[in-house]
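Lab manual, section 2.4: Encoding a predicted structure.

Procedure: take the sequence of the chain (42 residues), apply the prediction step described in section 2.3, and record the output as structure tokens. A sample record is shown.
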Amino acid sequence: MQALDVETIGVPADATPAFLGFTMSGHSLGWAVLTTTAEPPA
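Recorded output:
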């Protein structure tokens, strides 16, 4: 997940992931990684 400094970055829905990442990089305030863990039932 990323926090951006703008409400929209104006990337079309059919844009490539590379173009989206490039466009987002200039507006990034921060980012986070969510990690899930699980344990087998006892």
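Check your result against the sample. Residues 1-7+14-35 form one domain.
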